[in-house]
Write a structure and sequence with these properties.
- This protein is α+β, with helices and mostly antiparallel strands.
- Helices cover 16% and strands 34% of the residues.
- The protein has one helix at 15-24, and strands at 8-13, 34-35, 40-42, 45-50, 59-63.
- The strands form two sheets. Strands 2-4-5 form a three-stranded antiparallel β-sheet. It has a two-stranded antiparallel sheet with strand order 1-3.
- The relative contact order is 0.22.
Length: 64
């Protein structure tokens, strides 16, 4: 992903992008289970939830 001035991304990171990156790491997750409130538009570290059960779900750190 390309980055412009002030660490703004060209485009945004979506749950589909996160799903693809996890798949590259050998982790299979349905993109509908990725809890991303809104697309990521700036560089940084973000906590992203993964819904595995109604009462619990892990959070993973994602750096873009």
């Amino acid at each position: 992903m390309k980055v412009g001035e002030e660490e703004k991304l060209y485009g945004s990171v979506t749950s589909s992008d996160i799903q693809r990156k996890l798949a590259e790491l050998g982790i299979q997750v349905d993109k509908r289970k990725i809890d991303l409130a809104e697309p990521i538009r700036e560089l940084g570290q973000y906590n992203v939830g993964i819904k595995i059960h109604p009462t619990c779900g892990p959070r993973c750190a994602s750096r873009w």
